Amino acid sequence: ASTTCNGSTVTGLGIQTAIKIMYNAMLLKTSASSYLRYRVWTLQAAKTLFPGSCTEFNTVKAAWTAVSVPAQTGEPTC
Questions:
Q1: Residue 61: what pLDDT?
Q2: Tag placement on the chain: N or C end, fewer CB within 10 Å?
């Protein structure tokens, strides 16, 4: 356990799931990459990889929020 910027607790997804999401987000990378864009890309990846479940999507969203990376315009929803 470690502290978060907003004092929340986030339960991890496991290394295999996290790597799948991050890898798929990296495929969306452009020259305009930033933490803000990676928030959007990882949420899109979670939604694409796990279309029947919002668990992964909501966990990724909670993790970004926990480290003070705010919601972005055009961010997907689940």
A1: 96
A2: N
